[in-house]
Amino acid sequence: MSSPAVLAARAALASVDLSNYDPEQSRLMDERCILVDEQDNAIGAMDKKTCHLMENINRGLLHRAFSAFVFRPSDGKLLLQQRASSKITFPDMWTNTCCSHPLDDFEEEKVENDQSGVRHAASRKLEHELGIPRSQTPVDQFQYLTRIHYLAPSDGTWGEHEVDYILFLTADVTVTPNLNEIRDHKWVNKVELQNMFEDNGNSFTPWFKLIARDFLFGWWDELLKRKGESGLVDAKSLAGVADGSKVFKMT
Fold first, then answer.
1. What span, in angstroms and rounded, lies between the C-alpha atoms of 41 and 36?
2. Which end of the chain has fewer CB atoms < 10 Å from its terminal CB, N or C?
3. Cβ of 24: how many Cβ atoms within 10 Å?
């Protein structure tokens, strides 16, 4: 029997006019996401617009994504971004350093061995969104932790339904924001992030809230505990701290 994701992939529709949205964000909707089933098996590709329409998500259409968390080695602070007002999905919300998709448009981002595809995608998008040079985000320095499967509406038209790879990176990075992608950014420690969550004036992306609720703070504690002799935190020290073989369904 075919899974809901497979059936949805066969029946997907893309019928929304993007002319009233930001031109650059509309152009990016032509990028092709990697469609997956509920076990993260690749089953095809489809443009980002089609993948993010709630009409298709409600039928089960599912695609691959990543959430990257960049920590500063010297003090273990996490780099956050606030999404730009021009974003079609989840505008103006605070979130982790970078969240996006490996694309079917790039051969290296389709490679599944050692999560190579999502690592390359993370390096590419950290440069695109935050202006961080790729030389500062080597793909072999991302620590893969696990995958989550979640569904989240943005509004009545758009949403997310993803198998999301969680990647940590410790690096000294130079941030030059792309203002079409992000409106603000900041480095925070654990207490500062917890205070942000408690402030009703802030809004957060649903995937970031889920990851923070169930995983982030525990992994962050481990990252700080495992400082090397140099006193620096190292994301690679978290190898094995999570079960990366599973896809965790989160609601």
1. 5
2. N
3. 11
Q: Which residue matches tokens 């059936």?
A: 7
CA angle 33-206-63, nearest 5°?
A: 15
CB 181 within 8 A of CB 127: no
- Of 2, 6, 15, nearest to 61 by C-alpha is 6
- CB 36 within 8 Å of CB 63: yes
Catalytic residue numbers read 99, 162
Task: Report the pLDDT value the prediction gives residue 2, as an integer from 0 to 100.
Answer: 73
- The 10s digit of each residue's pLDDT in 151-172 is 999 988 999 999 999 999 999 9
Closest CA to 182 of 129, 121, 123: 129
**Residue 156: which residues within 8 A CB-CB, separation 6 or more?**
54
CA-CA distance, 80 to 86, in Å (whole number)? 18
What is the pairing mode between strands 32-36 and 42-47? antiparallel
* pTM as predicted: 0.94
Look-up: residue for tokens 């925070």?
Answer: 188
Phi-psi category of residue 103: left, alpha or beta, with phi > 0 → left and psi -120 to 50 → alpha: beta
